[in-house]
Amino acid sequence: MDNYILLYSGVPTNKRAAAGVAIIIKAKFKKRIHSYVFVNEIILQLKYKLQRGYLTLLAVYDPEEGKTEQIEEFYETLQDQIDKISKNDYIVVAGDYNARVRNIPIDGILGTNCEITTNSNGHKLKEFASVNELKITNTFFQT
Description:
By secondary structure, the protein is an alpha+beta fold. The protein is 20% helix and 31% strand. The strands form two sheets. A four-stranded mixed beta sheet has the order 3-4-5-6, covered by helices on one side. It has a two-stranded antiparallel ribbon with strand order 1-2. β5, α1 and β6 form a beta-alpha-beta unit. It starts with a strand and ends in a 12-residue tail after the last helix.
């Protein structure tokens, strides 16, 4: 790991697998890191300088299906972070959403390469992506 920088936001090691997100960056790109914020144990934000403008990367871990209050809090916090990002930034929100989005396309948001099932986390993810004009990119690629 000498050639990399690890940004980690999470819980103590004795509570592993409960929460936590990380971003790993090659050390040679350290000067491109504009800022980072440990929002909480399930959201980490990095602002990265590009040749033209910035990329804001949010690493996320959506609580598992059925944890309704925590899921609502997660999306409220995530939306607050999105709202603070400059409209000129490129935005990537990557992580584990514990979501099943079903293979019914939504133009520009959801592709056809998905599972045939859905869950409530999937509905929340589709709503979040739609409101923020984000693509659920793994649904646009065939595995």
